[in-house]
Amino acid sequence: MSGVEAFLRQAELPGNRWGERRVDRAFALGAARAYVPSGGGSADGAQIPPRRHRTIWISDTHLGTRGCKAELLLNFLEHNTCDMLYLVGDIVDGWRLSRSWFWHASHNAVIDEILRKAHSGTRVIYIPGNHDEVFRDYAGLCLAGVELAGDAIHETVDGRRLLVLHGDHFDGIVTYARWLAHAGDRAYAIALRLNDVVAALRRRFGLPYWSLSRWLKDHVKNAVEYIGRFETAVALEAERREVHGVVCGHIHKAEIRQIGNVLYCNDGDWVESCTALVEDYAGKLQIVTWTQALPTLQPQAAVAQAAE
Question: Rounded to whole angstroms, how far apart are CA atoms 182 and 142?
Fold first, then answer.
């Protein structure tokens, strides 16, 4: 039984919620790791020790969509260890799976790797978002070694208290106009496909990975204003909860910055920027962009394959 099947079976979710297709485990474990040696190896077979962190936050992986960079995510999880792993929502994309089924072998391998970490002593806390909201019904339970919660308070080594949540409750479109949110999700899927076309063209000319959709998000006025309003709203909630900072996802824009008295952190996504937020054993927080930090001798080849 594959990791995702085991997780969903323990949750006793109705089979028709996200479809009843089965994913073959043997194919997942073989194909998903084909482009990079497992166990910390480099392209020439040399062993690279995993990077050690106290805490890792990832979100918006959107497993179950063609835009998910699952191979890169799997590579990141295999080369980074931690005491605590937060899954900050939209890990599995139930919206997309309810419309049409797509589940690549590498997506299954990502779930298997997360469960392997949980069974190896990493505390894994899963805070569902709007795309995987079905799991919100199971907040407070522990399924396959993964703790589910609506939100969480994380305390850093240096004593700072951080509110951890996905953030969709502060998105007026998701909260009050779900039909528009679903329409926007379809448009975003088209943008991600264009992103893959651009990535393929850049690869042909030997250029590094670059995200068209991220560039548009950073430069289109309405998108910039929307992101600014979201960040401010999340920071205000952290201030209301009397914590030092907040860690969220949802808007696919990794960032660490001060908003008033609140430290705002967004761990980004794994469909555009391939980023994670990490805490070291001194309490320092930083964004890791995995397309720039791949521990292989041929990083661009890995990025190119993930973009296909």
Answer: 30
Report the DSSP pairing between strands 142-143 and 146-148: antiparallel
Q: Using alpha carbons, select from 74, 56, 115, 116 the residue that is nearest to residue 281.
A: 56
CA distances 260 to 166, 181, 238, 267, Å, are: 21, 29, 11, 19
The domains of the chain are located at: 3-307
3-307 folds as Purple Acid Phosphatase; chain A, domain 2 (3.60.21)
Q: d(Cα 63, Cα 223) in Å, to the nearest integer?
A: 24
Three-state DSSP state, 148? strand
Q: What pLDDT, in 10s, does the model give residues 201-244?
A: 767 777 776 665 565 555 444 554 666 788 999 999 999 999 99
Q: Rounded to an integer, what distance in angstroms lies between the CA atom of residue 187 and that of residue 230?
A: 20
CB 114 within 8 A of CB 87: yes
d(CA 120, CA 125): 14
pTM: 0.73
For residue 76, the one-letter residue type is: F
Strands 161-164 and 152-155: antiparallel
Looking at the chain, which runs of residues are DSSP E strands?
51-58, 80-87, 123-126, 142-143, 146-148, 152-155, 161-164, 245-248, 255-259, 262-266, 275-279, 285-289
Task: Name the token pair of 205.
Answer: 């000319």
